Amino acid sequence: MSDPFRLDGKVALVTGANTGIGQAIAIGFARAGAEVIAAGRSSLDQTLDRIAAEGLKGRPLQLALDEPAAAAQTLLTLGPLDILVNNAGIIRRADAVDFSEADWDDVIDVNLKAVFFLSQAFARAAFARGAGGAIVNIASLLAFQGGIRIPSYTAAKHGVAGLTKLLANEWAAKAINVNAIAPGYIETNNTEALRADVERNKAILDRIPAGRWGEAQDIAGAAVFLASPAAKYVHGTILPVDGGWLAR
Question: Which residues are catalytic?
């Protein structure tokens, strides 16, 4: 019996693959046998160099998700895709009373609107060729909680969780698995400000049962699982990978 956790022969598009969680997922997918299309608006050289150094398959795609409709059209030009990982995201921090419309729109466009329209394009292409596939969305603990000073990010991640369930309801019977991962506090560019705040950093660490911030590669294994045949009967789940944060 073949390994159900392998992705051999699959083509996977990972957005925001230039750094952090996206980079770790792209490398994890390549190690599991997939050909990876690493997408992002900045240089993808580091990610692709690491994939190539292991003799694995990867190629770059310059993709700006602040124009979701255009990004979705680009996806349709790539040829058959088996896996889509909607990872790319941005964050803006300010007290809710001071939060600007521009910061609201910027985050919603990238973190939520692009997730929907890329997923829609992926599904349309899959249905046209009579194929299934897997979509893995990157949500957040903020899909369950409110957070502080990140109103548009929190709204977007709640939206990602709801959208994941809706798309699963519509597409599960058509052989497209739609699931999401809710990372906990992970060492990435988006959390740099929190880690630099001594009091906030201590408060976060004090609550995490695992006693440490997560690393980007902690998310990769969960993503490989949800994209693999091992998860073929997993639909509409939001999987926390949080060091036990939500268990407290």
Answer: 153
